[in-house]
Design goal:
The complex is a heterodimer of chains A (about 170) and B (about 900). Chain A has about 170 residues and is α+β, with helices and mostly antiparallel strands. Chain A folds into two domains: about 60 residues, Orthogonal Bundle (Arc Repressor Mutant, subunit A), CATH 1.10.10; about 80 residues, Glutaredoxin (3-Layer(aba) Sandwich). Chain A is built from seven helices and four strands. Chain B is α/β, with parallel strands linked by helices and about 900 residues long. Chain B folds into five domains: about 110 residues, Ubiquitin-like (UB roll) (Roll), CATH 3.10.20; about 100 residues, Alpha-Beta Plaits (2-Layer Sandwich), CATH 3.30.70; about 220 residues, Rossmann fold (3-Layer(aba) Sandwich); about 190 residues, Dimethylsulfoxide Reductase, domain 2, CATH 3.40.228.10; about 100 residues, Barwin-like endoglucanases (Beta Barrel), CATH 2.40.40.20. Chain B is about 30% helix and about 20% strand. In chain B, the strands form nine sheets. In chain B, strands 16-15-28-27-26-17-18 form a seven-stranded mixed beta sheet, sandwiched between helices. The longest helix of chain B has 19 residues. Chain B is globular. Chains A and B meet through helix 4 of A and strand 9 of B. Bound molecules: iron/sulfur cluster (3 copies) and FE2/S2 (inorganic) cluster (2 copies). The site of one iron/sulfur cluster has 14 residues of chain B, from helix 4.
């Protein structure tokens, strides 16, 4: 069940940081006495740029941080917020932890599954939504809650979610 | 703090050095403390918690002295929780309980956690029967589980052709990951995910891009990592285990062969024995396939008419003896020569030259068949300190500064490389790698210095280093002959200023000075050299340069040597020691030294020739020109190893008699008149000598394959057919004669060589030869410098016989710098033709930034690469013209 499949889709084009990201990359590196310490900020920059961390992207991060490639891969899998597969434009992350769960997160999640026709970790064929269960988002007082990309939406129910989805194009 | 501590473990009080870990103290006290994650070669981690014990310390009074109770015994303060023994260092007065109810309960608890997700599939697990988890579950675990949740499961993976992974069995001890990183320097494995889902795998679950050593399998305490080549082949209790010495390089690792019937089913490290303990490289671990190969020769062959015909052993012996006698009678003993022998056991090497010298009366004996020029037999001995006590492989790991001259240790000496990687990681060892190519150890991650000298500038580099080292002053502890010779040496290298050296070698002046300074200042250092210099056409000069550098830098002193020679074969050192060179008798006694010859003449009841014989490259030429008419070649695919293929073909065709001792019908054997099928390393016993000059017993693991005999029996049979009365019953008998006669070996016996023999040293070291190295003339003609070197996955023609090693090695490529390739109009995978003075070679090209511009790198160990077809290097090396082969012949990637 917890076997994470190999990252299959790869983008062979990625060789280097685009010129537009150079400043950010240099800035991230400048914060630390050695390059390896910048590995997490570099992954964030990469994810902002490419949406997910493909093997070529992780190789680039490894080169930039002067870390062994397998180690960088391990780091990327350690944190759940790095995407190791392509995600849709809107990444719906539904909290399933206890407070939200008591407030109906399971029902909400099932509703989303039915409505979008996708399950946990899947993406709609049009690339619009990716649905995912996550652990506590630290908004426990206002459950059920869902994070969409970097925005929080709280005190949700089916109707509110439906209305929200309309606005996410 | 006192240098030793008294510790009481389960009532046994022992004294151990301060800084000892409790696990090691317990071992010393003969108390069993179980471990999973801790490992002798890795720093303490404390990941698995199985080693928990109760620890107490004496309570101290206000005066700092141990407090005593009313009965006068020290009061012990027990730590409130059990401690991991593998991360706890001993302290004076420490009390340890491993079997108290607290310790036992804690261990049981750890065991229960470890088994929460474990599949308990021992019946189908290759580790079963030698699994530490199985053993400890049996010894310490409960017999039922309180867990009824579903276990988390992973999918099983083949991580390449060697490593099989069943992550369900993994206890996340991290040994594999850390070993690969800290000792192999490969970082190929990593932990994916976290917590209960942690899984060991590679980058993106791809096949491991690594040395394929299988040491991760070896150190895995459970069946999570197992060896694919051994998968489902046997149960450990069905195997006989024999410890012998690996035949694939001069490091002399101990290997534990697992044998069933007549078949070797696996090879493993030895855990606590040998120079290597658990370590083996890919060749040592997976290279035994040739022993079981169906094509092994099983009968002597004698040429009759045009073909080789199977014949009985006695008939073959008589044939060889009669023809040897004829040739010697017709053309004199100088018409007979003996080649090869670096793969023989010591006793066999000894008898081989005894046959040549005492029976046939010739000094044309040389094991060093690859050499391109004559090198005095003593050169290696002198370069390594004249026989003074030599640093060991273990010392190597504790050196502060190590200079590797010209060899890629990954191919030539994998274990020494692992020692250096570990020293760099764990003990602050600094590496200086002098090599034209960026070899593994020269990569930035090992934080050393890479002296990227231009091919052909080896002599200049040595001279520059010698001068820079002497600039730092005169080292201490020089013997008087060296001290007296230093002014002359100073003079001889005076012109090699850092600036001039930079000009000649391309290595920055600053780097040369810094490297010399590091060597001179280090308290413990090492200089390593091997084939790249001994097989160089200017070898004699280069070895004098190495020797001079040794004395100039303090690596050699009156008391000791820190210069190590890494020969091409596992018993290269033994062959030198036993006089398989044209100018020395066993024990480095010059053939021209009448007094030194005497004991040999007495023992052998023969008058020995006093003129030095021809060296291997000279024998090659003499045989091709018809001056040598009979050749014996032992364990050597000479057509590949002789420096000039065309000349070797000519020589074999011209000789009246060619005798070959071999395991297989090699190309060379096909051209012989007599072929003797001989035993492999696993089928005979004897002594071998590794690069630290350590004597080790190589044991017999299986009976000789049908029809084969150990080489020494063949030599003895032929000697007897020639009329001498040798009567050795065993190899040990031969060793007894060696121990009576040979300087450096006197007084030794087989019994004292187990498990690990001593490093030999000479009571009277050889005199030093100081001097600058003369530069060889640059090779004539245009073209690229030919660079070559060893390959991790292949070593010698025996390694070509199996399936796994050639598969791992992939096809050979001519490697070119991308800029060079662009100039030549060559793309990755294109076929290129290399043209040397004598012939051509065709290979697919590979682009490689690690190869310097102006040169082409071709590995020499692949079966399809016969570099000697290009012609022999001369002067400073060999140049070849590289051009694209016709487009139609593009070779697939
Ligand atoms: S086989 Fe050797 S190099 Fe490869 S992953 Fe295992 S330990 Fe590392
Ligand atoms: S695979 Fe084996 S060595 Fe590696 S972490 Fe798991 S149990 Fe330890
Ligand atoms: S390092 Fe050398 S001796 Fe050790 S296993 Fe490898 S080839 Fe054999
Ligand atoms: S339980 Fe949902 S945000 Fe904490
Ligand atoms: S052996 Fe001590 S914690 Fe693993």
């Amino acid at each position: 069940m917890s076997h994470a499949p190999a990252v299959t889709a790869i983008d062979p084009e990625v060789r280097d940081w685009p010129a537009s990201r150079r400043v950010e990359v240099d800035e991230a590196l400048s914060h630390y006495p050695n390059r390896r310490s910048a590995v997490l900020p570099l992954m964030w920059i990469a994810q902002r740029e490419w949406g997910w961390l493909s093997p070529p992207v992780l190789r680039l991060v490894a080169r930039t941080a002067e870390l062994p490639e397998p180690e960088v891969f391990g780091i990327a899998t350690f944190y759940t917020m790095f995407n190791l597969r392509p995600v849709g434009r809107h990444h719906l992350q539904v909290c399933m932890t206890i407070s939200c769960s008591l407030m109906g997160a399971d029902r909400l999640f099932r509703h989303l599954e039915r409505k979008l026709g996708i399950g946990h970790g899947e993406t709609t064929p049009d690339g619009r939504f990716t649905l995912r269960r996550v652990e506590c988002l630290a908004a426990c007082g206002r459950g059920p809650c869902m994070q969409v990309n970097f925005d929080y939406h709280e005190n949700l129910d089916e109707a509110r979610v439906d209305a929200l989805l309309e606005t996410l194009t | 703090m006192s240098a030793t501590c008294k510790v009481t473990i389960d009532g046994h009080t022992i004294e151990v050095p301060a800084g000892t870990l409790l696990t090691d103290a317990a071992r010393a006290a003969d108390v069993h403390v179980p471990i999973f994650c801790s490992h002798q070669k890795l720093p303490p981690l404390g990941a698995c918690r199985i080693c928990v014990v109760e620890v107490g310390l004496p309570r101290r009074g206000p005066d700092g002295k141990p407090a005593l109770d009313s009965a006068g015994t020290p009061v012990v303060t027990w730590m409130p929780k059990p401690q991991t023994a593998c991360t706890t260092y001993v302290a004076d007065g420490m009390q340890v309980r491993t079997t108290s109810p607290e310790a036992v309960t804690a261990r049981k608890g750890v065991m229960e956690f470890l088994l929460v997700n474990h599949p308990l599939d021992c019946p189908v697990c290759d580790e079963g029967g030698e699994c530490q988890l199985q053993d400890l579950a049996f010894a310490f675990g409960a017999d039922f589980s309180r867990m009824d949740e579903a276990k988390r499961t992973f999918v099983s993976e083949d991580l390449g052709p060697v490593v099989k992974k069943e992550a369900n069995r993994c206890i996340v001890c991290m040994r594999c990951v850390r070993y690969c990183d800290e000792i192999m320097g490969d970082d190929a494995l990593t932990a994916h995910q976290r917590g209960v889902r942690t899984e060991i795998s590679s980058f993106d679950r791809q096949p491991l891009d690594c040395e394929q050593c299988g040491n991760c399998i070896e150190v895995c305490p459970v069946g999570a990592l197992t060896a694919l080549p051994y998968r489902f082949k046997a149960r450990p209790w069905d195997l006989r285990q024999h410890i012998t010495v690996c035949p694939y390089c001069a490091n002399g690792c101990s290997v534990r062969l697992g044998v069933r019937g007549m078949e070797i089913l696996r090879a493993r490290g030895t855990e606590h024995r040998g120079v290597n303990q658990e370590y083996l490289c890919v060749r040592g671990r997976f290279g035994y396939e040739f022993v079981n190969d169906a094509e092994r020769l099983s009968s002597p062959l004698v040429r009759s008419g045009g073909s080789l015909t199977p014949t009985g052993f006695d008939a073959a012996v008589d044939f060889a003896a009669a023809r040897l006698r004829e040739v010697a009678a017709a053309h004199g003993p100088g018409a007979v020569a003996f080649l090869g022998g670096e793969k023989l056991n010591l006793e066999e090497a000894y008898l081989y030259q005894k046959l040549a010298r005492a029976v046939l009366g010739t000094n044309h004996v040389d094991a060093r068949t690859r050499f391109t020029a004559r090198l005095p037999g003593e050169a290696v001995l002198r370069a390594t300190g004249g026989g003074r006590p030599l640093l060991s492989l273990e010392d190597l790991g504790h050196a502060e500064e190590v200079l590797v001259l010209g060899d890629d240790l990954q191919g030539e000496s994998p274990f020494a490389q692992a020692v250096l990687v570990r020293g760099q990681h764990q003990a602050g060892l600094h590496l200086t790698i002098a090599h034209p190519r960026r070899v593994k150890l020269a990569r930035p991650k090992f934080r050393g210095e890479w002296l990227a000298y231009r091919p052909g500038s080896e002599a200049a580099l040595l001279n520059g280093l010698v001068r820079a080292a002497l600039e730092r002053g005169t080292p201490d502890g020089l013997p008087s002959d060296v001290a007296a010779g230093l002014p002359a040496l100073r003079q001889a290298v005076a012109e090699w200023t850092p600036a001039r050296t930079e000009q000649a070698t391309g290595v920055p002046a600053r780097a040369i000075e810094a490297a010399a300074a590091r060597l001179a200042q280090a308290r413990r250092r090492a200089i390593l050299f091997g084939r790249a210099f001994t097989e160089h056409p200017a070898a004699a000069d280069l070895l004098r340069g190495i020797e001079s550098l040794g004395w100039a830098s303090g690596a050699l002193s009156a008391a000791r040597s820190e210069v190590m020679y890494i020969g091409p074969q596992h018993d290269s050192q033994g062959a030198l020691d036993m006089g398989l060179v044209p100018d020395l008798l066993p024990g480095y006694v010059p053939v021209g030294d009448a007094a030194g010859r005497k004991p040999f003449e007495q023992q052998w009841a023969a008058t020995l020739p006093a003129e030095p014989g021809l060296s291997a490259p000279e024998i090659l030429r003499a045989a091709a020109e018809g001056r040598i008419r009979a050749l014996w070649i032992v364990g050597d695919e000479w057509l590949r190893s002789a420096p000039d293929r065309a000349l070797a073909e000519q020589a074999l065709a011209a000789c009246d008699l060619v005798v070959v001792s071999e395991l297989f019908l090699t190309e060379t054997a096909r051209r012989a008149h007599v072929v003797f099928p001989v035993c492999s390393f696993a089928e005979k016993e004897g002594v071998v000598v590794n690069c630290e000059r350590r004597l080790q017993r190589a044991a017999r693991a299986i009976a000789p394959k049908r029809g084969t005999r150990p080489d020494w029996e063949v030599f003895q049979a032929v000697a007897r057919a020639l009329g001498v009365r040798w009567s050795f019953r065993t190899a040990e008998d031969v060793f007894r004669e060696i121990a009576r006669l040979v300087p450096g070996y006197r007084g030794r016996s087989w019994a004292t060589l187990v498990p690990l023999g001593p490093q030999w040293a000479l009571e009277a070291p050889a005199a030093a030869t100081l001097g600058a190295a003369r530069e060889g003339a640059p090779p004539a003609g245009e073209g690229l410098w030919l660079l070559s070197g060893g390959t991790l996955f292949l070593q010698g023609s025996l390694s070509h016989r199996g399936r796994l090693l050639p598969k791992l090695a992939k096809a050979a490529r001519a490697r070119l710098h991308p800029a060079e390739a662009r100039r030549l109009g060559v793309a990755e995978g294109d076929a290129v033709e290399l043209a040397g003075p004598a012939g051509t070679l065709r290979l697919p090209a590979a682009l490689d930034v690690e190869v310097p511009e102006g040169s082409v790198f071709v590995p020499y160990a692949h079966a399809e690469v016969e570099l000697n077809r290009l012609g022999a290097p001369a002067g400073a090396g060999l140049k070849v013209v590289v051009r694209p082969a016709r487009v139609a012949e593009r070779v697939g990637a």
